[in-house]
Amino acid sequence: MAMSAIRDFSLPTPAQCSVMDDEARATVGIGTLMERAGWAVAREIRKQFRPCRVLVLCGPGNNGGDGYCAARHLERAGWPVSVAALAPPRPQSEAAAAASRFRGPHVPFTAESARRADLVVDAVFGAGLSRAPSSDVMEVLSASRMLVAVDMPSFIDGTTGEVLCDGSHDALSGDGPSRDGPSGDALPDYALPDYTLTVTFVRPKPGHVLPAGRRKCGTVVCADIGMPLSCLEAARPDIFLNAPGLWHVPAMSPEDHKYTRGVVSLCAGAVMPGATRLAAAGARASGAGLVRISAGENACAYRLGAPGLVIDDAPLATLLEDVRRKVWLCGPGLTGAEVEASLPLLLDAGRIVLADAGALGWAAGNPGRLAGVAVVTPHIGEFTRLFGAPGADRVCAARRAARELDAVVVLKGSVSIVAAPDGRVALNDHASPALATAGSGDTLAGVIGTMLAAGMPRWEAACAGVWIHGEAGRNAGDWPIAEDLDRCLGAARAEAIRRDAATVEPGAGGLACETQDLAVKRPA
Ligand SMILES: NC(=O)C1=CN([C@@H]2O[C@H](COP(=O)(O)OP(=O)(O)OC[C@H]3O[C@@H](n4cnc5c(N)ncnc54)[C@H](OP(=O)(O)O)[C@@H]3O)[C@@H](O)[C@H]2O)[C@@H](O)CC1
Ligand SMILES: Nc1ncnc2c1ncn2[C@@H]1O[C@H](COP(=O)(O)OP(=O)(O)O)[C@@H](O)[C@H]1O
Ligand SMILES: [K+]
C-alpha cells in the first residue's frame, strides 16, 4: 500500500498499534509519546469544556499513563483534578513515571467518586483491553455524568467496535431496553455509558468507525503526537477508512466517448424488472457511457423503461460476442433459475461480473458457484447464507470470505466493509440511514458496475461505488426512495473527484482524517 494511503486512511488495529509502539520505543520513546498524548487530551478538554471538577480514572497500562499526564496538564491549567487508580502501574514503567509526576489528590476508584466529578476521563484501558472489564469498572464508568475517553472507551474492542462487557453485550448495545440477554442471563445493574468525546492518537482505530464503538465514542478527535510515519508503516495496517484519495475515480475527459466511459450490461429476468431497472439507473446516473439490459424474451417489460437504456432481446451467447461489453451485473431482479442460465455463460466468456441479490441466493450454502466473479455485494442476511454467520468480527469474516472466493466482498450495512482477496479492507461510514430503503442496494450494484466499466481495479471500484452511493444518500433529502438517489449520483461522483484532487500530497501535511468527526489535531 502506498505510504500516502497509510498516512491518510489507515485504521491500525490494537495489535498493529502494539507493533507501532515497539518501533517507537527504539526511536522517539514511549514516554515522550505518552506525554504528548496526555497533553493532547488536556488540550481537547480545555477546548471543549469549561473548567470543572475532573476525575481521571487510570488503569495499570499506558492508557493509564496517558491519563496521569492529562491530569497533570489540566491541574497546571488550574483545573481541580483528582485521580482514581484501578491498579498501580507496573514499577519502572513509563506509566509509573507519569504517575509519579502527578502530585494532585488521589481518591478511591468508586462510583461515588465518579458521581462527585463534573467530568470523568476514562484512561482505564485502551489498546491493551484484553477481556470484558469487571463490573466494578463498568459501575464507575456508568456513574459518570460526562465522559471523555482516552484512546477508546474502556469497554469497546478497538478491532471490532464491539462492546466487551459481562452479561449480554448485544442487548446492552442494542436499541431496546431488555433485562435479559439472548442467553437468558440477567443483565448487570448498570447502563452502558455514552461518551461526549474520545481523543485518540496517530490514527483512528477500526473500533472508532465500526458499530457499536462509533455510536459510543461521541466526537472522535485524532491527535498527531509525532509518531514517525515509519513506525505506522512497520505495523503494516491493512484496514482503511473509505474516502476519495484511497482510490481515484476517472474524471470526464474532453476526448471521452461512451465506450471510453464504459459499458455496463445487466442480465434481466421475467418477474422482478424493478430491481434490474434500479441497478441500470444507478449505473447510468453515476456516469456509465452506455447501459444495456439483456432481457431475451422479456424485452417488452424493459422497453417501457427509461429511453436512454438499450434493451437487447438476442440470446446472451450472441451478446457476449461484443468484446466491448466487459462488465456485467448478474443478480438484481433474477430468480435462481435465471442466474443459472446466465452467470456460467458470463464467467465462461471471461467477463468482469458483479454478483448481487438473486445470484447470492442461488449460491447460498455453496459459494463455490460464484467462483470467477469479481465482486459480490451481500447484505448481512445474504452473507450469512453464503458464508455462515460472521460473528463479532465482521471485518475478519469479510476478509476470509474474499480470500475464499477470490473476489471483492462488499458486506453492506450502516458501516459497509469492502474486503479484497489480498487482505485489504475499507470501512465505509460515509453513508446515511436514508439508504435503508428497498432497492438502494440495486442502485449500489449499478454504481459499482460503472466504476468497473470505467477501468478501475475491482477493490478500488467497489470502494468508490460504496462511497459515491453513500454521498448520494447523504444528499438525497429526507426519507428518499431508491429512485431519488439517481439524481444525486452525478454530483456525488464529482465530489469524489474533487476531494481526491484536494488530498494532501505526501510530505505536505500531517496524518489526516477526512470524514465526519475524525479530525486530526496537530500539537501547537
Ligand atoms: N500507539 C500509540 O500511538 C500510543 C499509545 N499510547 C497509549 O497506550 C495505550 C495502550 O497501552 P497498553 O498497551 O499498556 O494497554 P492498556 O490499554 O493500558 O491496558 C493494558 C493493561 O490493562 C490490563 N487489562 C486489559 N484488559 C483488562 C480487563 N478487562 N480487566 C483488567 N485488566 C485489563 C492488562 O492486563 P493483562 O491483559 O496483561 O492481564 C494490562 O495491565 C493506548 O490505548 C494509548 O492510550 C500512548 O501512551 C503512546 C502512543
Ligand atoms: N442505517 C444505514 N446507514 C447507512 N447505510 C445503510 C443503512 N442501512 C442500509 N444502508 C445501505 O443501503 C443499502 C441497502 O442495500 P440492500 O440491503 O441490498 O437493500 P435492497 O436489497 O433493498 O436493495 C446498502 O448499500 C447499505 O449499506
Ligand atoms: K480508555
List keywords for this structure.
single chain; 524 residues; alpha/beta; Rossmann fold; UDP-N-acetylmuramoyl-L-alanine:D-glutamate ligase; 2 domains; ten-stranded mixed beta sheet; seven-stranded parallel beta sheet; 22 helices; 17 strands; 40% helix; disordered C terminus; binds ligand NPW; binds adenosine-5'-diphosphate; binds potassium ion; NAD; potassium; metal-binding
Q: Order of strands across the widest beta sheet?
A: 7-16-15-14-13-12-11-8-9-10
Radius of gyration over all CA atoms, rounded: 25 Å
Q: In the CATH hierarchy, what is the superfamily of the largest domain?
A: Ribokinase
For the sheet with most strands, the description reads:
10 strands, mixed
Task: Count up the helices.
Answer: 22
CATH architecture of the largest domain: 3-Layer(aba) Sandwich
Low-confidence stretches at least 5 residues in length (pLDDT < 50)? Answer: 168-186, 505-524
CATH topology description of the largest domain = UDP-N-acetylmuramoyl-L-alanine:D-glutamate ligase
Number of domains: 2
Distinct ligands: ligand NPW, adenosine-5'-diphosphate, potassium ion
CATH class of the largest domain: Alpha Beta
Spatial gap, N to C terminus: 30 Å
Structural class: alpha/beta
- The total strand number stands at 17
Biased composition (Low complexity): 173-185
Family: Belongs to the NnrE/AIBP family.
Protein name: Bifunctional NAD(P)H-hydrate repair enzyme
Binding site for AMP: 412-416, 441
